[in-house]
Task: structure prediction
Amino acid sequence: MSTPRTSSISPDVRLPGTARLGLARTSLELLTFVRERDAMIFIFAYPLIMMAIFATVFDGQVAGPPDSGVSFAQYFVAGIAATGIMLTSFQTLATSIAVERDDGTLRRLRTTPLPPTAYFLGKVGQVMVVTVVQMAALIALATTAFDVPLPDEPGDWLTFGWVLVLGTATGTVLGVAFSSVPRSGRSATAVVAPLVLVLQFISGVFFPFYQLPGWMQDVASVFPLKWMAQGLRSVFLPDEAAALEVGGAWDNGVTAAVLGAWLVVGLLVGVRTFRWRRRDDG
Result:
């Protein structure tokens, strides 16, 4: 990250502040996202399709004891929301940044006066906007098509907000850090997608978490996706449903601690390993 930059901009010309450049970069990232229609459709459609499939297949069934009153649609909406956040932040950035490094985009950006911070702010802004729209569409589908009740307590919406923001931030910095793992842009999807898919299966996204083997629960508890799903279940499920969790409680404090720890790890690793050039560029 210490590669020297050259620019023909006169030293007397003052550039806009980093925050303003970050907003401009966010607009550019969103425009690029919209132009990539296949990727955009997949990111928005995937959670909706998964929600529709699972809610339809398990229609009329309850999650947990028969007297729990928690439908499968109500239980799964939290896991689907969590995987949507992970898809939009971690998977998308880990793949797209690897591609930008491979095709020389990052190398060219590094020779411009654009501060690196503004580039990353643009990525964060784009991910946050897309995630909010994605969550709004998912909640609208769940409530209108599958009768999933919305939370009626302000505290639940506050929990939804901080899990969304902290989960998105964590997925974003981990995506930036992991983008240095694929050896090329062509191999990025093959490296990133299987990892995300495995985490989905062991983190209570496609199956009730309490039904998974104990060793699988222990492995999933190390990673942030399980905690995002659990934090969101505390929003969409009644208080009594906490008994369905492995520890018998929502443990939102643990959720915040685990997500915060992964955020710090992602920042530290990303700062040390992020590369603006391909490996063969030196």
